[in-house]
Amino acid sequence: MDLPSFRLFPYSCRYCAFWETVDFDDKTPREHAEETKREWFTKVAKHFGNCGFIAYLDGKPMGFAQYAPAKYFQSFTKYDDLVLSGDAIFLVCLYIPKREQWRKGIGTQIFQRVSSDLKSRGYKAIEAFARTVDAPSDNIPDWYTGPLEFFIKMGFKVLNQHNQVALVRKELI
């Protein structure tokens, strides 16, 4: 990830450190969340390499993806019932913040870019959490995970499901 472009992250993504730390919640000051995320990207880029993409439309950031091996995401300790495979890279975020941009192919293009990046680096699979309900709810907000329908369209298979969240996997062969 090109860290100077960090300022171009979609606004909500810049201040979300949900996956990077177990201490993040709605009361976390934005400055602390942004610093946590910046430190996370610096560390992960050093050890893993590229771990995110920003999608642009007419020069403006429209979407964001973040991914890495699960060991880099502290919040996985909260999900004992959804166990990740050790051989997959976890896609924690593929987010299009503006709803009017949903279903316009931006998410597909971001996913194809992530997939191509991981294939070129020799990774065999991607896993992600997917929302099993049609619309975001108070329990599963839209920033937390994408809809299962999207992941199925991208070729993912459901590995496990708990409440309104499914663990999905796509082989990159």
Tell me what you see in this structure.
With 173 residues, the chain is of the alpha/beta class. The protein has a domain at 51-171: Gcn5-related N-acetyltransferase (GNAT) (Aminopeptidase), CATH 3.40.630.30. The protein has four helices and seven strands, in the order ααβββαββαββ. Strands 1, 2, 3, 4, 5, 6 and 7 form a seven-stranded mixed sheet that branches. The chain starts with 10 loop residues before the first helix and ends with a strand. 33% of the residues are buried.
Spell out the key features of this protein:
7-stranded mixed sheet, 27% strand, single chain, 4 helices, alpha/beta, 173 residues, Aminopeptidase
Number of strands: 7
Note the overall shape. Answer: globular
Q: Give the percentage of residues in beta strands.
A: 25-35%
Oligomer: single chain
CATH class of the domain at 51-171: Alpha Beta
C-alpha termini separation: 24 Å
| Model regions low in confidence, pLDDT < 50 over at least 5 residues | none
What is the string of SSEs from the N terminus onward?
HHEEEHEEHEE
Indicate the mean pLDDT. 79
CATH 4th-level superfamily of the domain at 51-171: Gcn5-related N-acetyltransferase (GNAT)
Concise description?
By secondary structure, the chain is an alpha/beta fold. It has helices at residues 11-14, 30-47, 106-120, 148-153; strands at 52-57, 60-69, 88-95, 125-131, 146-147, 157-162, 165-171.
